[in-house]
Structure formats: structure tokens, C-alpha cells
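Same chain as my last thread, 151 residues:
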Amino acid sequence: MKHVLLGAAALAAIATAAYAQRPPSSVIQTRQAHYKQMGAAMKAINDQLRGGSPDLAAIRPRAALLAHYGVQVLRWFPRGSGPQAGVRTRARPEIWSDWAGFERAGARLLVAARAVNQAARRGDLAAVRAGMPALARACSGCHDDYRAPEH
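reply #2:
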């Protein structure tokens, strides 16, 4: 996971610079929209897996979205896009005060999302099913540490 963390951190540093050029309100709105898409993708995959005969054609694009956004998550949090921006956000200040921890959380998400995506691409429903708990833990672990309760 260390090489994934280093790669994710390098990508995030480059991309975060571009995000930092945007107004905080735009960054926050984009971030929230992406997280809503990720939540919907997680729900859709879980709904498929709970159904009688999961449809890989329904799972694959959602798993791909999760892996795609998994690479991007860290860049969605440039300095200044937290509560101090004056825009409603659940991003806690600990994201920036514990950036190394946040990077590790992002790396866990990326590893888990890639595993589910690769399993879906191979058509291995058992591996998709087995990978979803790790992906859910990566999401909820980050939420526990870095997301404030609903307003």
C-alpha cells in the first residue's frame, strides 16, 4: 500500500494545485456532487449484490466510477475549502491538520475501490462481493475521522 500512497499523494499534490485556483464554493460543490455519485454507486452495487441475480452490466460502471474518483479524492480538498470558506460543508478541519492521516485514508479507499473495480471487470462476482466490505470500511473510516455530522 505504501507505493499506492506515494502515487496517490503525488497525483493529489499536482491536481490540488489546479483545484486551489477555483473559488472554495465551487470546489465544495464539486466535491459534494462527486461524493453523492459515489454514495449512489455504492448503493447500486450493494443493491445488485443483495438481489437474486446480480447484473455485472449494472455493477461495472459503478465500480469504475468508484475507482476513478478514488484517484481524485485527495485533490478535492485544497486548503481553504473547509468550514472557513463560509460554505456549508461537512469537511472537518482535521483533514488539513492531519493531512498524512487523510492521505492514508484516501489510499485505503483507492486500494479497495480498485480491487472491486478489477473484480467487476473480470466478471468475478464473488470477488466483488468480498471486496465491498473493505470499500465500505474505507468510506466509513474516513467519515468517522474527517466528516462532521449533518448540520
